[in-house]
Amino acid sequence: DPWNAPDKPEYIEIEFEKGIPVSLNGEYMDGVSLIAKLNEVAGKQGVGRIDMIEDRLVGFKSREVYECPATVVLLQAHQALETMTLSKDILTTKPNLSLQYAELTYVGYWYSPLRTALDAFFDSIQKHVTGVVKVRLYKGNAVVVGLKAEKSLYVDDIATYSTNDSFDHEAAKGFTTIWGLPVQTWKSVHSEKSMDIKELKVVGADK
Question: What is the pLDDT of residues 111-132, one digit of tens each?
Answer without folding.
Answer: 999 999 999 999 999 999 999 9
